Structure formats: structure tokens, C-alpha cells
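Quick one, C-alpha cells below:
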């Protein structure tokens, strides 16, 4: 079986006193790290740095994800690359989430909790979520991108077209 660096055996820090920590620093392709993310093209290895802190039944995970990604501009449709760096803070709680009957109002902190059972936690889903949250919904190659002419499709960043259109900007 292949070693999965983002599935962490907690026996080392659980056996130590409260406040014990474990540093993780891994680098690799999304496939090597178990972080396949459809729709995202990584053009350099992913680096994931995490500090896990034992706080009794909670494992506090603070870290950073860095890489370089390729995106398509939402205005001109040209591909471009940019550095990606995102810090994160995740809480892994021992046990299972509480199940309530009827209606129940969730607090924002309820949505931040990730539950685990046993002596290992799987960081992959939380990190994958952080990657998706860090990618802009409408990426732009540059803030001043003019986009495409809606009539002829000319990339207005490269040259103006002769279409007669009513400017609405």
C-alpha cells in the first residue's frame, strides 16, 4: 500500500501531553498527495505545510498551501498562470457530529468543524476545500482586461476592432 502523507497517525502527539504538536511539510503532485482537484491545473508541485496541535479531543491544524496554477481569464478567455498561496485553520474533533431532531440553527463555528474517529486524521478533504476556496470564481489575467468584442470576438487587449457598438461602460 502506498504511503499517504496527508493521512496523519495521531498516536505520537496523542500520547504526549496536552499542547504537543507535529509539523508536516510535504510536496508533490496532486495525485501523489491524494488531492486530485478537477478543473484546476497545477503547473508546479503543491506544497502543504501544517502544524497539528493536540488540544485534548480537538486537533488544531494551521498551515499553508503554495503552488502555481493555470487559469482561464473570464473576460478574454486567454490562459494565464499565477502563484497560489492560501493559509488555513481547520479543527478536527474526535467523535461524530451531533444529530438534532427538528429545526436547528447552525452557528458559523459548526461549519468549520471536521470530525474524525480512531487514531488518524485525513487532511485531504479540508485541504482540497481550501484550494477551491482560494481560486477566484471569475479569474482575470489582469484587472484592466478589456475582454472580447461581443460582436466579432476580437481580443480587445491586443487590438481594437471596427465594430459599431454602443458602449455601455
Amino acid at each position: 500500500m502506498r504511503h499517504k502523507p496527508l493521512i496523519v497517525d495521531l498516536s505520537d502527539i496523542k500520547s504526549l501531553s496536552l499542547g504537543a504538536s507535529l509539523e508536516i511539510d510535504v510536496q508533490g503532485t496532486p495525485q501523489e498527495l491524494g488531492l486530485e482537484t478537477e478543473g484546476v491545473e497545477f503547473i508546479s508541485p503543491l506544497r502543504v505545510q501544517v502544524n497539528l496541535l493536540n488540544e485534548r479531543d480537538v486537533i488544531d491544524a494551521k498551515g499553508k498551501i503554495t503552488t502555481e496554477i493555470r487559469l482561464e481569464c473570464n473576460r478574454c478567455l486567454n490562459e494565464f498562470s499565477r502563484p497560489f498561496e492560501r493559509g488555513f485553520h481547520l479543527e478536527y474533533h474526535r467523535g461524530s457530529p451531533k444529530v438534532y431532531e427538528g429545526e436547528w440553527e447552525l452557528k458559523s463555528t459548526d461549519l468549520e468543524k471536521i470530525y474524525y474517529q480512531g487514531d488518524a486524521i485525513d487532511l485531504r478533504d479540508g485541504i482540497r476545500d481550501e484550494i477551491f476556496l482560494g481560486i477566484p470564481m471569475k479569474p482575470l489575467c489582469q484587472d484592466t482586461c478589456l475582454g472580447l468584442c461581443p460582436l466579432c470576438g476580437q481580443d480587445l487587449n491586443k487590438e481594437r476592432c471596427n465594430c459599431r457598438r454602443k458602449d455601455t461602460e
